[in-house]
Amino acid sequence: MAFVLLLLKGHAQKQPNIVLLFADDISARELPIYGSTVWSPPKGGTTSDVKYKAQTPILDKIAEEGCYVKTAWASTVCGPSRAMMMTGRYAHLHKWWHNKDKGKAPNGKGNWNLYDSSPHSIAHVAKAGGYATFWAGKTQMSIDGFPFDEGCFTPGEGSYNKAIHTTDFRLETRKVTGKKVIYNADTNKPIHKKSYVQSGWYWKPHVQLMNHPSAKQKFVWWPNDKNSKKRYGLDTFGPDVELEFTFDFIERKVKENKPFFVYHTSHLGHDAWDFLNPSSEGKWPGTPKINWDGKKYTRVTPKVTGDNGVYNTYGTITESGIHHHVNYLDYQVWQYLNKFKALGIENNTIFIFCADNGTSGYGKSSPISQKGTHVPLIIYAPGMNLTKKGAQDVLANMSDLIPTIADLGGVEIPDSYEMNGESLIPFLTTNKPKHRDWVYGYHKETTIIRGDLVMKDGNNVWYDVSKYPKDLISFPKIKDWSKVSEAHRKERDELKKVVPKFDQHATAHDAPKGGYGKVDPLVKK
């Protein structure tokens, strides 16, 4: 508890509120603060064209006034990365090796649920710390075993490839002459470019509320009353709905004088079918237009009319591009900060921004170098006694967030329970010069690991990472170990000793029979 008591000026008697904004498929290079000379164009790939470069004045500000980690890693693709975030553990324990490569449950039937493999999840740790908890946005996993108090999901549980009464924005599979064909339910026609089955989470989204105080059931589809039905339509943007219900939750908890933990898993950054522009060649549907005047954001109210795949947006929505998604995240972070200030909690709230894996069409699902694993990590806590400011040339991992939240909430994770993350609090609040010695990622059966000097990627290629290249990725390959320093060789040997503990895809792919047995409980320090 010692670190917690040092954290907040004038607020040592109460744990800080925490908002964790976990963006989707965004490489570190997409944020200007990371200084990359390249980023992603609307069709995917790599460009240095400044018209496709994101503009993030708010994320830049909080990264400089708070701090950001130059080398933060996740896994290479969303499922395993979200498993890492939710459990603080790697795939050798939770068995989520890839999106379509998950270990079987102990009885051999179905995939092993994360809350069964890893009962001390991020939600359990936050609850043990006395937090009211809210989950907004993307789930991508069964949610029943996670004890979040409330939620707003886009799309809601079970809506993938299933019709719901509020919207026909979805791609679904249908059998045609014995073959599966993907149809656009909005146009009732097959699609003629590569995509995947999905429910709409951007425009006219599938929205489901969990345990909302106005609802009589645990799960309800939104809109669910006269007023919301009146304003819901083609111009309803899913990320706006998420934030609206998140703010409603925050306001209620502040009135109750209850600390809160918000786990906001935004879809922004993820490519998707553009229902408003089905012929678009871009990977990312547009967002509402916004403008930064140097002091504040303004947002253009979207206007959309039409049906059956033919729509008019009247110039209120941006063109395709991940840079627009990053810009809109910046706008939402600005909204968060304004809300904290309006509620008088800005000095007792910690805001964390990160992402689950590299950008689609560039790094996502790539085991090459750190393309798939390198993501942004920004920590902003204006009321916190941070000893670190701005860029931090250290290593961090998405598994570190659960131990960090445990420290903030004064929760002790039992020594008997393996947690692969390490709390960032000692590094952030003391003169500790280094956070951790190595970071680890995985891609199906491959392992990816790096230290301060060397890195091994999923293809077993070794790199000299002692200096960052301009594109954050093109490190020199080490082909002759006699031409690097003894320190490089020593670190290589240390990393080789680490990997076997986690490299269990071939030997322990599925859950052990009977699971892991009894788990010692979480306790307050």
TrEMBL record:
Keywords of the record: Hydrolase, Transferase
SUPFAM superfamilies: Alkaline phosphatase-like (SSF53649)
Residue ranges annotated for the Sulfatase N-terminal domain, each copy included: 16-411
Basic and acidic residues composition-biased segments: 495-512
MF annotations from Gene Ontology: arylsulfatase activity; transferase activity
Stored PANTHER family: ARYLSULFATASE FAMILY MEMBER (PTHR42693), ENDO-4-O-SULFATASE (PTHR42693:SF53)
Family per similarity comment: Belongs to the sulfatase family.
Name under which the protein is recorded: Sulfatase-like hydrolase/transferase
Species name: Seonamhaeicola marinus
